UniProtKB/TrEMBL annotation:
Sections of the chain in a coiled coil: 38-79
Pfam families registered for this protein in UniProt: DUF881
Entry protein name: DUF881 domain-containing protein
Annotated keywords: Coiled coil
Species lineage: Bacteria, Bacillati, Bacillota, Bacilli, Bacillales
């Protein structure tokens, strides 16, 4: 009977020991797996952090490159604007030169000055003092150009930088073409400015009237002066 009890006690002891060993094994295995998982997570986190650092460095480099390219683009845009301005100025100069040379038609507001021979006094000893001479026409033309006229024509004959005016008796020769009085001088420019310049007290108009020249001035909203015809046309 006592031997039987001892066997039961030993069985219980072995059972408890077996349970304890089994629990200890499971606990150790769980801890090891946990350690392995933590190591893998740490390695993964490290890789992700390294990738993030690389991306940040790459992003900084790209931003620097973008900034440099933007600066170059701004420089190119400024250069293009400057070139366009230079070309625009050149185009204006060329157009102005063509206008001076009489190569293009000009239209706009302006004035028309008409000069005619005066009525001869029967008692006058010098009839030529009542006739329009080249200096009379030249005085008007010069005053118009000085006052900003863009183009001037005499009896429809366009004047250029090479034009000449000569007096031959009762007629005036303009660039080889002869015109009798009256002489109609057309000028394109600011009409008010041109009118004031010609009518200025003690100016061109007063001189002409004092020399018995018939003088007339009209302001026009539109005057058209055609280009000079080339010899080959």
């Amino acid at each position: 009977m006592k031997l039987k009890k001892n066997r039961i006690v030993l069985s219980i002891v072995f059972l408890v020991l077996g349970f304890m060993l089994s629990f200890s094994y499971q606990l150790t295995k769980t801890n090891e797996e946990h350690v392995v998982i933590n190591d893998k997570e740490w390695e993964r986190n490290t890789q992700l952090q390294n990738q993030l650092n690389e991306l940040e460095e790459k992003n900084i480099r790209l931003q620097e490159e973008l900034s440099q390219k933007q600066e170059k683009l701004f420089e190119l845009e400024a250069s293009v604007v400057e070139d366009e301005k230079v070309l625009g100025d050149l185009a204006k100069k060329v157009e102005k030169l063509r206008m001076i040379l009489g190569q293009v038609a000009v239209r706009g507001e302006g004035v028309i000055v008409t000069l005619d021979d005066g009525t001869v006094d029967s008692n006058a000893s010098d009839i030529s003092s009542y006739i329009v001479h080249e200096q009379h026409v030249l005085n008007v033309v010069n005053e118009l150009f000085i006052s900003g006229a863009e183009a001037v024509a005499i009896n429809g004959k366009r004047l250029t930088s090479n034009s000449y005016i000569e007096c031959t008796g009762p007629v005036i020769t303009v660039d080889g073409e002869r015109f009798p009085a009256p002489f109609v001088i057309s000028a394109i420019g600011n009409a008010d400015t041109l009118e004031k310049a010609i009518n200025m007290q003690g100016g061109v108009k007063d001189q002409l009237v004092n020399e018995s020249i018939v003088f007339k001035l009209e302001k026009k909203d539109l005057i058209v002066i055609e280009p000079v015809l080339s010899k080959n046309s």
